[in-house]
Amino acid sequence: MVATWLIIVIIAVVLFIAYIYNSLIRLRIRVKNAWAQIDVQLKRRYDLIPNLISTVKGYMKHEKSVLEEVTKARTSLMSGSKEKKAKASNQITDALKSIFAVAESYPDLKANENFMMLQEELSGTESKISYSRQFYNDSVMAYNEALQVFPKNLFAKMFGFKHEDFFGTEEKEKKNVKVEF
Amino acid sequence: MGIYEEIASNKRRSYLLIFFFLVFVIFLGLMIGLFYGNLYFGVILALIIGTIYFLISYYGGASAILTMTKAKEAKKPEYAHLINTVEGLSIAAGLSKPPKVYVIKDTALNAFATGRDPEHSAVTVTTGLLDKLNRMELEGVIAHEISHIKNFDIRVMMLAAVMVGLTVLLSDFLLRSFLWGRGGSRNKENNQMTFVLIIVGLILAILSPLIGEAIKLAISRKREYLADASGALLSRHPKGLADALRKIKADPDPLVDHANKATAHLFISTPFRKSKKSFMKKLFSTHPPIEERIARLEKM
To answer: Which residue from A31, A167, A166 is spatially nearest to A90, judged by alpha carbons?
Structure first.
């Protein structure tokens, strides 16, 4: 009689622990997945840039420095740690902003269909990068939170689950952008 | 209320309504069973019919609506910005793949989402909406629609529609049983009790379809608030949707020509001409009043 109850209790405990473990695993996988998604968007931007540079070069013959900035930032984008990638990504965003700002004074370039398509695609990709970062941070938040609440926190340590880092923004980006006319 | 609280509250309330609905349907089934002297009869009947009904609308639903409204698939480069917006927001929502994008050529401002789950979903907007809204406002609307998909609202509403159908069927059945004579074993004694039961049953049979419809619409309204809040969380910019709703409200012609009662609840704003809102109109409205939606968004 006692033996049956004991077995039931043990099974219940095992199932409970399995449930906790699985939920933590799922949250961690979501974080990894979310990071991969950021990479997908970064790669897309990486691939679009050469097209942009060749379209723009013909028109903006005297704007060498702006074009160089983008090329430099682009090379450091696809390799390195998470922090390095984040930094490179922000650099590219700034460099692209400069290119599009400078392009405003070249009406022929602005009317070029390829340029317009690239402008929309790059702007769309910038948004997607932000959204994938947002989703990544949301996933990290859910995961880190799960690691800290009771009773999951007891098991988290036992199974070796560690906290993940948020994808931060540079201080520069956080300051409000002033638009001057 | 903050965004997270708003989301949790709306989810809770819609689940409560569905639970209440289920109880109501089972109660109807029991009434029938009581009448026929076999309690299980009614409930089992309800369950079988309900399952068949649900499966039909579940698998057939989305394509029918898209055809009815004459929506055409959106392609680049003509609708590049719209497609990019949808893809971006589905990334933010963590959807495994972005919904298909469709466009309706109509000057009215409206949008809707369809699809039984995120894998088979679609977002549709009118060309009027694309012309009149700016980027932040369009984002707000798309975020709202994607939230409907993410929260499985289409599935929830299908469930509710099935329950309404069941309510209608069961109460009809009950009514006929009263009018056309009784079946099963009857308790000859206690005539007064039976009489009272008949009256109660009759009232229920007549009112149930209305009650069922009212409950379904209450669920619909809660899910609209939920989509507003979830959408605000996706775009991180409640003002976008609030501004869009203002423009939609000011639009003199919200009527999308091919909308009808069956598809009304899917649109972001009721697609029928606005008239004075009496209590009955409010009770049977698929969407909450726009002013209230704007107010909640601005408080987030």
So the answer is: A167
What ipTM is given for this predicted complex? 0.73
Q: What integer pLDDT is reported at residue B274 of this predicted model?
A: 54
Q: Please report the sign of the dihedral spanned by the C-alpha atoms of residue B233, residue B235, residue B236, residue B242.
A: negative
CB contact under 8 A, A127 and B77: no
- Average pLDDT across each block of 10 residues of chain B; the chain has 300 residues. List them in order: 69 77 76 70 74 74 72 88 94 90 88 83 91 93 92 79 77 73 50 70 79 83 89 90 89 60 64 56 74 88
Domains of chain B: 3-65+153-206 (no CATH), 67-152+221-298 (3.30.2010.10)
Task: Tell which residue, B285, B292, B282, B291, has the closest CA to residue B271.
Answer: B285
Whether residue A77 is predicted with pLDDT greater than 80 in this model: the reply is no
Could you tell me which residue, B64 or A150, shows the higher pLDDT? A150
* Beta-sheet pairing, B100-104 with B72-73: antiparallel
Show the CA angle centred on residue B167, arms to residues B162 and B168, nearest 5°. 100
This prediction has a pTM of 0.77
Q: Hey, is the C-beta of A121 within 8 angstroms of any chain B C-beta?
A: yes
Are B80 and A121 a contacting pair at CB < 8 A?
Answer: yes
CA distance A92 to A143: 29
Among B79, B82, B91, most A C-beta atoms within 10 A, so best to mutate, is: B91
- Is there a contact between A117 and B236 if contact means CB atoms under 8 Å apart? no
